[in-house]
Amino acid sequence: MTISSFMPPVRTLMGPGPSDVHPRILAALARPTLGHLDPLFVGMMDELKQLLKYAFNTENELTLPISAPGSAGMEACFVNLVEPGDKVVVCVNGVFGKRMCENVTRIGATAVTVDCAWGQPVDLAQVETVLEQHRDAKILAFVHAETSTGALSDAQALCALAKKYECLTIVDAVTSLGGVELRVDDWGIDAIYSGSQKCLSCTPGLSPVSFSDAAVAAIKARKHPVQSWFLDMNLILGYWGEGGKRAYHHTAPVNALYGLHESLVMLQEEGLENAWQRHAAMHASLAAGLEALGVHFVVDAGSRLPQLNSVYIPDGVDDAKVRQYLLAEHNLEIGAGLGDFAGKVWRIGLMGYSARSENITLLLTALAEAMTQQGYVCSAEDALAAAIK
Amino acid sequence: MTISSFMPPVRTLMGPGPSDVHPRILAALARPTLGHLDPLFVGMMDELKQLLKYAFNTENELTLPISAPGSAGMEACFVNLVEPGDKVVVCVNGVFGKRMCENVTRIGATAVTVDCAWGQPVDLAQVETVLEQHRDAKILAFVHAETSTGALSDAQALCALAKKYECLTIVDAVTSLGGVELRVDDWGIDAIYSGSQKCLSCTPGLSPVSFSDAAVAAIKARKHPVQSWFLDMNLILGYWGEGGKRAYHHTAPVNALYGLHESLVMLQEEGLENAWQRHAAMHASLAAGLEALGVHFVVDAGSRLPQLNSVYIPDGVDDAKVRQYLLAEHNLEIGAGLGDFAGKVWRIGLMGYSARSENITLLLTALAEAMTQQGYVCSAEDALAAAIK
Questions:
Q1: CATH class of the domain whose range is B23-268
Q2: What value does the mean pLDDT take over residues B51-56?
Q3: CB contact, 8 Å: B339 with chain A?
Q4: Boundaries of CATH 3.90.1150.10 in chain A?
């Protein structure tokens, strides 16, 4: 066995994440490693918290990145807020709602599901009916932007419903943060988690989270210890807390945090609302181009995620062959369908640094070429003309 | 609020980890991000598994990096092998043995502790007495290299004891992997976890783990689901398993894995046994230099970790002032004492890329200077002369 250094090619990442990582962020990852208790590193952590508060639109003190991917951020929210025996209403309109249920049951709590159609936003009336039937529910959990389908749910209205029925909220913002409007404080979200590798355009591996005062109070009032030592927010707070003694908990992923810091500095430079607008504008361009190719959207225009475009694979076009062609001939990655959508749908990401016109031009050109090879009739020129409009 | 890019200085890291990261590894972190299901990335994952098997001296199929720091690797071993109601014998001779107990109790299992003196290896006779008293114990857990004290325990003998009493073993190798002899298969270790940021000299954030066939069988025979979704090895195996369908579980920390791959390629180039010998030789040099400064070791020579040197702070020398001076004047980090050793002990790391003679020269020179400033009488020249021997 002799294994050499790994030299990856440069891909264009237009799948469901990771998205294209800006060269500034890659450069940040390679900066000299500091100790995780170094005063300069601790200062960087304070900036990171400020930047995350900006991105989440929150003043929540307990706002920080979990040292693991979005799935661990999900687990952090559930294991800290849910206790054995609790009842949690979980809205399921895709893969990630289902994963939330897994988290609930592994705590020894009960998940009451609100099953909604894939590709649709969570249905408010259905949720209210279930909350009405389960007055003892403690938490309402839902996915803001379903990465498996491309549907955006009305987080503001869902949080208002939760408050009406005296539930705390747990919100999955893995794909929404930085890509669409998201206002943690104004909407009254209690616990939220995201991922570094979607609209923040950082490398994968970190999960920003934020907890409201009500969530923190619930964590402090727990009857059972948090089942995870690694994800226990009481302990994590000892390391990340303001003015605290920076008690050692675990060794922070120093260089990965440099990358997240840089990605958030770039978000601040662009302006959060400008980033939302850029995603919307790029989506409009891509959508016009795809429709010109005869490729149609899974999700209705009113609840479509600009950053994740789920489209039906046209009849007679081979899913795997197209994706392999794009990768082999154009170094271009798009996403396959997940769960119920496997083999039927492509997921085309326009997240963060991927949401730019060069990528749209490449995608439309390459996709038209790949489909034409399979006898599908379409015109890249028409698509590009439509996209420019 | 306007926050700028973070530009860390270049430090020399001689604390308990993170250790100095080789420029080749920093460069690897900045390579272009691939999708986590990209065939080229999957190929890199297969190499990573092979390289980890080499580092652990194992043929265990279930050998891979957990996508989170060493504490999560610890939790992965415990939540997969321990079920509610189980009895686990935990050897405690420092901070990390205590943390193991926390993991056991949060599962709803019972931890029977073998309390040993800090700075000493785990006492075999004590362990046998406890195993004799608790014939229903399912697992023996211990720390191979206690990062909080610098003591090395006899993992081979402890595993033999465990087998005699029909226990599985969980071994903390966070600080030992790559720094001292470690033979997972020959010694009969069932579950082991390590960290990327110690003797592998990679950045922090990943935890290599390995499970024996007996451990895998125990995981498959569980009566209760694993309480953590993120750390459930049954699910993780679906993504990392050979010849499997590479089922999506969570998004792998792509660039961090490039770094780990590069660090293991470098370990393979040097040769594992050569790396152990380098750590031993550098330790001998440092130890001679420190003794010449009148700085004495906490741990007896026979069970000292070469890669983590715990030494008593000489009388009249201020702990914090010395560490601040080293950092401010020499960009040199050493570690403070942890737990019972806070304020009494320094921890000087010689891990991975930090274990080289330039670092020893810097440490001895800078430490002599810092202590002299406080009226302590010592000679850097004598220390350097002793170190060269």
A1: alpha beta
A2: 98
A3: no
A4: 272-388
